[in-house]
Amino acid sequence: MSTWGVLGLQNSNSPLMEQLIFFHDHSMVILIMITILVGYLMSTLFFNKLINRYLLEGQLLEVIWTVLPAVTLIFIALPSLRLLYLLDEVGSPSLTLKTIGHQWYWSYEYSDFQDVEFDSYMVPTNDLPLDGFRLLDVDNRVVLPYNTQVRLLVTAADVIHSWTVPTLGVKVDGVPGRLNQTSFFMSRPGLFYGQCSEICGANHSFMPIVLESVNMNTFINWINSQ
Ligand code: CUA
């Protein structure tokens, strides 16, 4: 989860998020190079006394300053497209989680099993245990196995919500009357936190997501206990 002082991205818990972080860093390096170059060029303009009253055109220079940005953009666009299509790939999931956004809580359905469905509400600050995370902990966590391809179906019952878990690289809108699909693969066990990220009403900030990543045996035991 994100703690104090974490201004960048959280560590990834899925191969896709790992790729997203690589792409972020790649774009950031290009961005910094451009900023430094343009910053240097602009600052030199203040300190030189160059004047050329007869300058009308500079074909070579214009070719260079047109082609260079175009090539730079291609270096961003190609990895971006690769990631876009990679994120869209559902593969052959062995488990399906259906999540439904409500004002203002999430409800979950494990449609591979009979009658496994529950609501997940934020724990109010007053009821929070001493080691609880304020505005982030829920009464019923989503439990899922790691090292397993999971299909995620997202929808909503009233207004648009968005099921967003940063460590997974998952951010899918829940839209009433529509069923959105994505998938993810968790690389390690742990507790992973997320929040709704569509402005869905007065208590938008108070419908967090807690995902419990466990091994397959623990998951099966949990399913059996439902
Ligand atoms: Cu649901 Cu914001």
Helix content: 25-40%
As for the CATH topology of the largest domain, it is: Immunoglobulin-like
Characterize the main sheet: 5 strands, mixed
Q: What's the CATH C level of the largest domain?
A: Mainly Beta
Number of helical segments with 4 or more residues: 3
Which of globular, elongated, flat, extended, rod-shaped describes the shape?
elongated
* Uncertain ranges: none
Distance between the termini: 26 Å
- The SS-based structural class is alpha+beta
> Cofactors and ligands present?
dinuclear copper ion
Element order, helices and strands? HHEEEEEEEEEEH
Radius of gyration: 24 Å
Percentage of residues in DSSP E strands: 25-35%
Domain count: the total is 2
Name given to the CATH homologous superfamily of the largest domain: Cupredoxins -  blue copper proteins
CATH architecture annotation of the largest domain: Sandwich
Strand order in the largest sheet: 3-2-1-5-8
How many strand elements?
10
| Mean pLDDT, all residues | 95
Cofactor: Cu cation
Main location: mitochondrion
GO molecular function, one term: cytochrome-c oxidase activity
Domain Cytochrome oxidase subunit II transmembrane region profile: 1-91
